[in-house]
Amino acid sequence: MENQDFQKELRNQINEWDADIARLMARADEARPEVRARYLADIGRLKSQKKKVEARLKDLENSQEDMSGGLDITREKQVASVINPLERFR
What we know:
Layout: H1 3-30, H2 33-62, H3 68-88
Helix pairs in contact: 1-2, 1-3, 2-3
């Protein structure tokens, strides 16, 4: 995968996570207090993971070398850690 394609893919994933976070926030606002707390904890984890990916994307954008091999593995781990909380609330 070319560096630019990989950057675009990461940006798209970040945008998807933003939408997922917004949906979870809407659900949290309507949930009972004990359920809301779980939503907010999951939202916090999603935001943390998103921040890490954004930082790696920024590093990649600033880098001249193609680092997609190492970032592919990182992205897969990030996606897996985000999907688990999202699946619980679907």
